[in-house]
């Protein structure tokens, strides 16, 4: 216990460096707002940043840390940098189907997907007392099988953090959520059908992230640490909070990966109810996080790498960079650029806030921007209109040093919560 307290005092009393670490950006030809630049500068001042920050072309303002940033650290971790959608990421699988195998009425396919995968979120009002529409009432067998891979470690975490028991965990496994999460049916450049989806650790990940962000802030207040932004509160290696967080965040990342696998199983099953022709899936498949932290070796040293809206792009590694509704998406192969800590962007990146998008655009704008895509065309998804995001072609052009394009996908069906 004495060792723990000594290390806690040593790290927690460290103060941000005046100049901070360098910031290396892959943003040529892509707009970067001033607020995001300031946020990056704040993060770079922390005393445990290793080498430099790496900034992807989809960079934009986030809570605490900037979305589209890669944050390598030694001796500490920033829970708000990982965020509350722990393990959020993408999964894509190529099928042996082609465009001519899809039904003429794509709304039937969209409806089958919506019935197979819970999506959306019930209103957060005191008067609402029904079940969460984004969770299972009766979960299928794939959920049970996935939960068995998670249950024992979750029970161990709950013994330390009992309030995590009362979260949507089992009932959210294999569900989509809302916001920018989606399920899509896409066509590649040769006309093959791909299945793609985007989700994370759902309610339980949110609870874990929220709890440890608050614990980090409490540690900062307790030890009177001066920070440029309170959302940069961190947990120091060698403390109980750090150890508990690393275990919990690792579990939430595992939950997120299995969540996508279960959704993919149910998506494939839904497809088979509409398309009677036999087909194979996972001809090529990718399942990658873009909000997570893990230990990696860079420049000859073990470091914790937090990717907040960034994808691992080691040499030869496949990843997914989605566009927005109505825009292209890409299956990419990493080039293993060491200066980016082997990373690439996680999407196009928002150009404006959700509030601004709703203020600026109309339903007619959204209908026009998503022409040719079977998707929602109502006011509830205007904040996801393609014009609210950066130009995906410019984003891809800015990161030619980081990845090469393997497949270009265009969605024909998109399901959002």
Can I get a quick summary?
GO terms for molecular function: DNA ligase activity; GTP binding; manganese ion binding; RNA ligase (GTP) activity. Helices cover 32% and strands 24% of the residues.
Mean pLDDT: 93
> What is the strand arrangement across the widest sheet?
9-5-7-6-16-14-13
Number of helices: 11
Question: Compute the gyration radius: what is it?
Answer: 21 Å
The name CATH uses for the topology is tRNA-splicing ligase RtcB
Overall tally of domains: 1
Helical content (DSSP H or I, runs of 4+):
25-40%
CATH class: Alpha Beta
Strand content: 15-25%
Distance between the termini: 47 Å
So what's the oligomer here? single chain
Q: How many distinct beta strands?
A: 16
Order of helices and strands: HEHEEEHEHHHEEHEHEEEEEEEHHHE
Give the CATH H-level superfamily: tRNA-splicing ligase RtcB
What is the name of the CATH architecture? Alpha-Beta Complex
Largest sheet entry: 7 strands, antiparallel
Could you say which structural class the secondary elements and strand pairing correspond to?
Answer: alpha+beta
Assign an overall shape.
globular
